[in-house]
Amino acid sequence: MVKVAFYPGCVAKGSCPELYTSSIKVCEKLGIELAELEDVGCTGAGVLSSEISDPINARTLAKAEQMGVPLMTICSTCTGVIALANVRLQDPEYRDKINREFLAEDGLEYKGTTEVKHLLWVLVEDVGLDVLTAASTQPLEGVKISPFYGCYLRRPDEAIKDGNRKSYIEKVTQAIGGTNVDISGKGKCCGFPSLTINEENALAMTAKHTSEARDKGADAMVVPCPLCHLELDGQQSRAEAQEKQDIDMPILHLSQLVGMALGFTPSEMEVQRHFVSTKNVEEKVKSLAVTAS
Amino acid sequence: MQVTMKFVRTKNEDPDQRDSFVVDVDPETSVFEAMSKVREEQDGSLAFRGTCNTGFCGDCTCQANGKRVVPCLVKVKDSVKEDAIEIKLIRNVAPVKDVLYDVDQFMWKKYKYFRPWLETNGTAPAVKDEDLEPVRLAMRCTVCGLCDEGCTVIDVDKEFLGPMALTKGLYRTTKDPRDQDTKQRFIEAGEKKGLWDCVHCWEASEHCPWGINPTHLIMDLRDDSIALGVKSGKGNPMAARHYNAFADSVKKSGWLNERMLASKTYGLPPYGLSLSGMMSQMPIALKAIRKGKASLRPHKSRPGARQIAKIFAKVEQSHKNKKA
Amino acid sequence: MRYDVVVIGAGIAGLQAAVEARRQGASVAVITKVHPLRSYSITIQDGINAALAQGDSPQAHIADTLRSGDGLNDKSVVEAYCAEAPAAVRELYNLGVPFNLDPQGDVALVKLQGSEQARAAHVHDMTGHVLAQVLYEQALKYEVVFFEEWYVPSLAVEDGVCTGALAFQLSTGNLDLISGGAIVMAAGGVRRLYEPSTSSTHCNADGIGIAYRAGAQLVDMEMVQYHPSIIKAGRLAISELLLANGAQLEGKDGQAVTGSAQPFGHSLARAAAEAIASGAGEDGNLNLKTSITQEQADTTYYNTNARLQMFMKGNLAGDPIPVHPGMYRILGGIATDASGATSVSGLFAAGECAGTGFHGAGAMDGNGLLASVLSGHRAGSAAANAGKASTGEASPAILQEHQGKLKPLLERDAKEGDLAGVRSELTSLMHEKAGLSRDAAGLAEAAEKIASLKESYATMGIPTKALSFNYALQQHLETRTLLAAAEAIVGSAEARQESRGVHYRSDFPDKSDEAGSMRVVVEQGEGGPQVSSRPV
Ligand SMILES: Cc1cc2nc3c(=O)[nH]c(=O)nc-3n(C[C@H](O)[C@H](O)[C@H](O)COP(=O)(O)OP(=O)(O)OC[C@H]3O[C@@H](n4cnc5c(N)ncnc54)[C@H](O)[C@@H]3O)c2cc1C
Ligand code: SF4
To answer: What b-and-e string marks burial along C210-234, b requiring 16 or more CB atoms within 10 Å of the CB?
Structure first.
């Protein structure tokens, strides 16, 4: 049993409710005890100036520190932004300043000890791949999955800390019986951060990654970040229009993919909320379930 | 040792061109020296750049056996595979001949966009040594282009000004306490294809051979620009609207209200009535409601919203003081 | 195309000349075969001297410079440069050079070898890298016109007056004529004449060779300075700042190797070469040991240390670094007066290709960058005056004449590798016979060999006919300038029958008062170099 301070992030509680539901179910099944942090703010998502987001994140880190457990997110962007703030907050002088100016008046202090982890890292490092395999009552044999990390689970090194983490998705898909389909842009930006600022670029990125996955024969892409999901799934039809091509690439959250291997049905994982139909994956999973029983 | 040097010769019209050469090189010397040896001894028509041989000039960047490198910094013995090294153009560039590309379009033009000289008014402000360290960091850049080569945005948009120019053009000047034109520089940098088009994917930082961390510098530049009240250029209102809407939402409720973010950014009801915004966003919004992605329930504040609002107030006050 | 001033070369000297000429209101074009920020100057790590410290003075700077120069300096130039140095360094700071500062916020100064005072301003270990950038920024600000990746094979000289430069654009191969009211030659040094030597493939004695072939006088060409500590991979010269901060050379059994005279680096290079020859080395290298901390290695010496890590997984703080001596700069060049004017009317020279007399027989550490900046400043200023006053324009006939010469070169039968053969013979010949130690027999042999290489060169053509980026053509022309500089160096070294500064004759190991009162001058003659002399 591993316990974490759970930071779901804004999007899992907003436009990607399926991520929240599926994550809760998966964690429950794997024995990850979630103590959800309520009284915490948005990480800033790399949008807000770090002058503002560092104090907000220091507050969050301090709350997790009080609980004495790692902070777990289900969003790469949250992971990256908090982890980078955490790196800066290791500097005692800077940490003192933030504590003094922003946290002290609420009786808080961040001592610098909280570890920040993404669900993906918890799956591999705390649950263990063996346990994951053993718990996969419905291994995803024959399902071709294209891992898409996006930016923040591969870089920067000081936030990722352990280089092995850069290939964890592949390890997880393997552990649950799936087949990996590698694409060249798996560690590139999905386009989301540019969506309002330079839409053309954002959609071009989306089209590039999703069409490459399709060309390489993937049944679905899997993402550890709801922003990647909003982009690759939510904007895919507009990317198709801009780039004048059909793509139809289903995008699954990491939790949904793992959940299906653990025996949850696709609808329990709320795939019906997606924009791009996940029918082909659903059918594959259903037929696996039939053969399994 | 004997190495077969292979060159992928793009845009070379010579029908007799050779692309494979065996040279005798010391495995301890650089891939660039091996390339030069081929050109000097066996084929003077081979085109590639490179002068200094110690990684200061940044001119020889290419792919060697599939790795994007500054070849004078890589030893032959570390690059060679099955006694061969294949030399190829980097990505994201317009080829001119063989391994030589249009570097002006790729980098120098973008660098010049930032008016990369100091604007001073004759008064020399008192400067501390550590104030100049960021300037030194940016000037360490050798214009090798590996950051732009790996840039996610340049990958889809060749006009994006890119991490190299933002580093050596914008960061170098705005971080210099002797420069007197910082705010205007941020306004110019905030136009489309500039500072706000970066998607902070951290590729640039990963690719820079000199630890300059261009992505960090870009994020730092944004902080500086915001502190001066510049959230985009005059012709690029979306960037500023997005920032303001995001900040307003977090300020108000402690976390992101996506509905409000989209509406404010695109100027949709109740915050506006932009036709283009409606056209592009309405279908998505309706679909989201239908799919149960966007809820119609009101956005609730976080328990700590008041504390978070205080953080905003303090930082915004310090920005006001800075501007004054 | 006509400009008041045409500068050839965009290293520190060329950029400084261009900026100064623009400031004085001249129209300026710079022709450079590589992008300005790819010039050799950007590899310079060490500092730039100026008497800025409390207790220092231009007089003390002059005294140190003269000591290094060992009696051959042009005293008036030394006096002028040392007096101008403090203002020049302050100006560079105001233009945007982020010099390291001391706790008071003044430019921090380091004591380099040869100086009695802390006198060198620096930007960590990338002073040249940064100076070139700031001067390039200024050139952009002043809207200097750049002909980037244009190669100059020859000067246009009519009735003894230099009126422009021939140049071809590397991307098209088309030869053009760029006229100037005044021309500043700032095309850098001669490193590719020697092996071993420091890095950079573009230093082919272009400036010296072109001017010599156009009839200009060269001076002090026998003064070729070596660096004591070059690492093999990348030919990186380990910063002189380190030697100044107590780094030591050792043989393989730990025996110390040290220099005994000024300029210190060169004398150490000679001692190192002797130690290696007598078996103290390992694989031709000695060990360089520093006493710097890891923090210094990561900040002040970042550029050196990061390269060491890439090249040899070495670390300046702790690991012994295998190094060997190698040639790195020439002290003589195109003879100029204090303003930068050469013996050819309308032609000025600055930077490493200029023989200003500032260094004399030995360049003190930190004076090289200073000379590039100040000679550029002065030549730019003088050329602006001359260029604005002149109305002349090079005649089109010159272009036709040169186009006519180039054509048969391309048509001639040629074999790949011939030119490379000439060059490799030349580099080892120069190092062995005209390098650290010279004697009459060796120099005579070298002169003969160079003459025969010139003969075979004259029959060689260009195997590659394509016009765009025809490196073979460039290499052909660069071989010509290398051969020209080689014969001038050897001729001058033969004439100086004594040992002085960096010039060492094993057959004349001592100084001679008579020889020491003269500077050796060379001009191109019918059958070879015409050597003469003039009083110091
Ligand atoms: C490792 C190292 C360390 C050094 N350290 C120091 C030091 O600490 N202090 C110091 O003072 N000096 C130092 N030197 C010496 C220094 O390199 C030179 O004095 C200086 O670079 C000369 O500058 P420059 O402007 O004359 O020429 P360069 O920087 O060599 O520039 C030559 C320019 O001429 C152009 N060019 C050449 N030929 C042609 C042609 N045919 N047509 C068109 N353009 C042409 C090139 O494109 C280039 O722009 C060092 C040298 C080395 C190698
Ligand atoms: S920032 Fe780094 S990677 Fe980018 S051009 Fe400069 S040296 Fe190269």
So the answer is: bbbbbbbbbbbbbbbbbbbbbbbbb
